[in-house]
Amino acid sequence: MRNMTITAIILLALVSGCANMNKAQTGAVGGAAGGALIGQMIGHNTEATLIGAAVGTMLGYIVGNEMDKYDKQQLNHVYERGVSNQRSSWVNPDSGNQYAVTPQPAFQNPTTNQVCRKAEINAIIDGKSQKTYTTACRDANGQWQLQ
Prior knowledge:
Shape: globular
Strand content: 25-35%
Order of helices and strands: HHHHEEEEEE
Radius of gyration: 16 Å
Number of domains: 2
Mean pLDDT: 77
Largest sheet: 6 strands, antiparallel
Number of strands: 6
Low-confidence stretches: 1-23
Structural class: alpha+beta
């Protein structure tokens, strides 16, 4: 419980400084916060918290910085209708960024009872290849939310 309180205080301090941040920085901080909390909840130790924060930072940066509304719509479409283990690709017509997403079969999260899907995202952004793994779950409104 003490580690959870300390983590929450640190994350609150980080998030409170988001006023002058760009989308990438805000996404990275939000991802770190979410990842750290999830890591702490799952592993109940500092190592799990740090791993969660690192993974969340990377995912938050990619989503916050590079994915605009068009890309998020495409990603949502893959989570909703993508065939499991079959790659779906697109190129953003404005930025030229390229994405290839391979969704996994849907499953029910035993903790939240939400329907979720994991996916591998390969992106080419400014000529640099990036790879990350994500999980998205349906919220109460039926929209896919990255975890």
